[in-house]
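Lecture notes, unit on protein representations.

Consider one protein chain, 852 amino acids long.
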Amino acid sequence: MSTSSPLTRPDAAPTRYFAGDGEHDHRLILAYYVAAVGVLSLYGIRVCPFIAGLDALAVIATFLVAFTAAFGLKLALEPRLMPAGEPFTLSIYQFAIDLALFTAVGVGISLYNHHIHGFPLESGGKVLIGCMMFGIFAGLDNGLRRERRTPSPLDRITETPRKIFPITDRLFVIFVCVGIFTGAVSGLVIVKDIDYLIAHIDDEPHAKLRRAIFIDIAFVIGTVLVLAMRLLWSYGNNLAYILRLQIDGLAHVSEGRLDTFVPIITRDEFSLIAAKTNRMIASLRDAHREQDELFAVSQALATELRLDPLLTLIVATTRGFVGADRVSLFLHDAERDELWGRVAEGSAEPIRFAADRGIAGECFRSQQPVRIDDAYADPRFNPEFDRRSGYTTRSLLCVPVEDRDGRCIGVIQAINKLGGRFDVNDERRLRAFAAQAAIALVNAQLFADLARAQRYSESILRSLTNGVVTLNPQGQIVTANAAAQALLGLDGSDQGSDFVECMGTGNDWLISAREAGREHYLGEVELIRRDGSTRQAVTSRVPLADPDGRALGTMLVFDDVTEEKRVRNTLSRYLAPQVAEQMLANADLNLGGVDQRATVLFSDIRDFTTISEQLGARDTVAMLNEYFSQMVEAISAEHGILDKFIGDAVMALFGVPFPGEDDADHAVRAALSMQERLVELNARRAERGEAPLAIGIGLSTGELVAGNVGSPKRMDYTVIGDTVNLSARLESATKTYGVSILLSDATKQALRGDYPLRELDRVRVKGKQQAAVIHQLMLPAEQLAPAALEQYSGARERYLSGEWAEAAALLEDLCRAHPEDGPSATLLRRCRRLAEQAPAYWDGAWPPPENG
């Protein structure tokens, strides 16, 4: 049995309570049995004149034995007869059991006196009435006590009883029962005694008999009144106990003890108050727990500023917060106007869809929660995601994630409530959590932007060839980029040190450099470093201030004007920057001409002559500048070296002057990037109403000669050889085959990565005896299905073996299915020509030898 306070919820599972299990006190009913023995014995011995001559011990013994037996039966049978139930039901059973036992005692004594002692039945009737009177009062009093002493089942403490008996009705029933039985007992006793008095009116002594009868009546009425007062006191005690429970419960709640509950021990208005109080406490407890959880979540979110771990934390916390099986966080991509699952449980790849599509899109656009109990019954739900993942979505809850300005930045979507459906409380909890998550996301984004800006600034400082030093208002070094450290002889340990002390004596220009308040050009000064060496630099001072104009310090900018800087600037005008840097870094580098292996990229604008005639000179130059800017960026991003511009053509080198194992891969990626940038360029040209551009690209890998070529007055670092010529011819062949990028077989063999390649042809290059195998690097728009590629390969096998008619039949089917495929159309025309006029000699290379 639970030993906890009636106002404290035990941690154990709900317990059922039974009579006789140690929770109910039998002392009260024992007192009633003792009182019944004493009152009825006294009534029989001292009051009732008919049995006044009986032996007192015999009368007492009769009642004592009878009530002792009844009490023993009560202890033995009551646990089996008393069912499980709430206190009010148990009190009714308690009343019935006690009344039955007292009645049984009265019936037993009456029959015993009638059959053994020969008493008349009317005398036994008095005994029966007296026992029943005690039984009614004892049953009501003991029932009220059980009502007070028996806790209600703990799994129903917040339920409202199905049927309510108002207090007024209960009091009315009690008073009616007491009144009826008291009146009946008193009336029967008085009538019987008056009848007895009238029957013996002439007996002597009459006064003594009359006094005995009056004493009899007074004794009975007095006993009934005493028992009635005791019953009213017991009922009032119950009411006081209930009120005390209510008051104590509210006092505990006011003290913050939300583990309190008020037992429901009646079916009257107090049960309604207790049930509502318990529901209130449960709501407060849930709200307090929810508040604690939300506070803990807020602390966790506030301490995580890295965006990716924060997103994972939000999803994991949301799942436990609302009891969902899966959770996804969709953020808004403003550039594409799409929602994408930065963290989507159950999806191996990020999910992207239009911001106005599906249930998440509806939630994002309306900025209102969306709760769905049956996803497949809602037309907004897209079951395609379930088909991909094999997951079944049953219920959904989506809430918008809004920043502090009310702008929706994403959607949190909880899927499949565990153990039921999402309700209003889940919606409210998730909205509160989404508000906290939005703040954390904004803070994390700001932190990421700040970190990105800091990295960007640091990157700028590192990439600057000019030396930059920033000082705080006290003249201490805050930052010094690599160029400044190399120029001034500083290192990382000087950060936070006084700049003048770090530079040492002899630097008179420092007096002007430390002055703050305005920008100042110091001109060319001599820098005396700590090791005593000197450097020349053009120096300027720029004051630093915050947006409010408060001074933050000073920035010093040093432009190195030493001989090395002058040489670097000069070389950069004639050579690619990479070549110039490596020349300065590697004094032994021989640029006079070396044999090495490299990859050459050659590109050309299609129909450039026509375009230039239409545009005119000025617009042609503007178009070329815009085009070359994009192409050079694509080449530089892949560590390529721009060799030269040849009209509208671009020649780039990969692996010169220092070759690498992945030069061919860099060249291929540069070619793909050039085509991608061309698509973006054409989009901008279309917005301006200008015609699109198309380019062809050829790639060739092989041995070539790299070095300085030219006259003593004008040298140009370049490459020459068959590899260069082949790349130019491959670029020209892109027009013949109707493709964008062609590469040589040597380039294909040198590739380390996987790319969408297709072997196109074997061609005879001018000046070369051996035919060259060429391959197509397919762009996304040029790629074919595996079956189509296999069909093209089969046609080429027949073409190479001289079965031109069969090859033409396969190619005709392929061209009908893919009319945009240039290589198929080219090979089909060639097969038809060869089938009509076969060459004298055929080795599979095109064109066939003229003399066989």
